[in-house]
Design a protein that fits this description.
Elements lengths: L17 E2 L2 H4 L3 E2 L13 E3 L5 H4 L5 E3 L7 E4 L24 H5 L2 E5 L7 E5 L6 E2 L5 E2 L1 E2 L2 E2 L1 H29 L3 E3 L2 E3 L8 E3 L3 E3 L1 H5 L3 H9 L2 H11 L2 H11 L15 H8 L13 E2 L3
Parallel strand pairs: 7-16
Antiparallel strand pairs: 1-7, 2-8, 2-9, 3-5, 4-5, 6-7, 10-11, 12-15, 13-14
């Protein structure tokens, strides 16, 4: 019998976790997600450094506040507001969708404390697993199906990207480059600007004052392009504001509220590993 997936401190968007196993899912099939209203209410989702170049074209990239900052793509400027997904969690228009959302409702989780082994799990509340002839089988001849292997491979890639993201953020913190962010937007005809806080961003002044050898090291290890992608993306905040107004979701408050995203997102991007240390792990579908 498969071990129980950990249920405490679940990652953002996940309501529960259940390991994929032959015993429990041997005759089940994968169904398309018909809707996920709670995803449509997510105003910020985690992103990895591997996708910064694509994300920054559409979404502002900021960092959550707290001891363990995490890069986030803003899809709305107020909690509960998403300008790119509808009320059912489906895309309003074809744009790049962060890997965190494309991975849902699956992820790799550590089932046994003290073990480096990660197992493929699913959020059972998503409705993606069901009975009947429709959909892709989960197991074929008692082995994970081709579709499940594709999902496992994607989750492994996300896990590796999470390790690289943790290392990047760790270097930002070590260099003391993150600062509390603030954005003021004053629409035409408005007497007072809307001021948004509750997130972190790279301090451009500190970046400019860094020694040449430090900047050379950041250029060589690939940090500088990621930092500039983040900084360039901040111009998208005004576009998100305009989308909210256009969709009738104008600001009711001025707080991004990323503080509570730090710990569950950290657990998702880097399942119980040091932000810098990378350990060899085995990935599996529970048998």
């Amino acid at each position: 019998m498969a071990s129980q997936a950990p249920q405490s401190a679940l990652p953002l968007l996940y309501n529960a976790l259940e390991p994929i196993s032959l015993q429990q899912h041997g005759d089940k099939r994968l169904k398309p997600i018909q809707g996920a209203p709670h995803i449509g209410q997510a105003h910020a989702v985690p992103v990895t450094v591997d996708e910064f170049a694509l994300v920054q074209r559409t979404y502002p990239i900021v960092f959550s506040v707290g001891e363990n900052p995490v890069p986030l793509a803003l899809m709305g400027l107020n909690e509960g507001v998403n300008t790119y997904l509808d009320e059912n969690g489906m895309q309003i228009e074809p744009t790049y969708l962060p890997a965190y959302l494309r991975r849902y409702p699956f992820l790799l989780a550590q089932l046994n404390e003290g073990s480096d082994e990660l197992s493929l799990c699913v959020d059972p509340t998503s409705g993606v697993i069901g009975d009947g002839p429709d959909g892709d089988p989960i197991f074929e001849d008692s082995q994970p199906s081709a579709r499940v292997k594709e999902i496992l491979d994607f989750c492994e890639q996300f896990e590796a990207a999470g390790q690289r993201t943790g290392a990047f953020v760790g270097e930002l913190v070590k260099s003391n480059l993150l600062m509390d962010g603030e954005v003021a937007i004053q629409p035409d005809g408005s007497e007072q600007p809307f001021v948004y806080r509750g997130f972190q961003m790279v301090d451009e002044e500190k970046l400019r004052e860094m020694r040449g050898d430090e900047l050379r090291k950041m250029n060589q290890n690939g940090m500088l392009p990621l930092i500039f992608a983040h900084l360039f993306s901040l111009a998208q905040i005004r576009d998100i504001f305009a989308r909210q107004v256009q969709q009738g979701k104008g600001p009711a408050g001025c707080w991004l509220g990323t503080k509570g995203l730090g710990q569950p997102v950290r657990q998702c991007l880097d399942q119980a590993a040091s932000p810098v240390e990378t350990r060899s792990r085995a990935h599996q579908v529970a048998r």
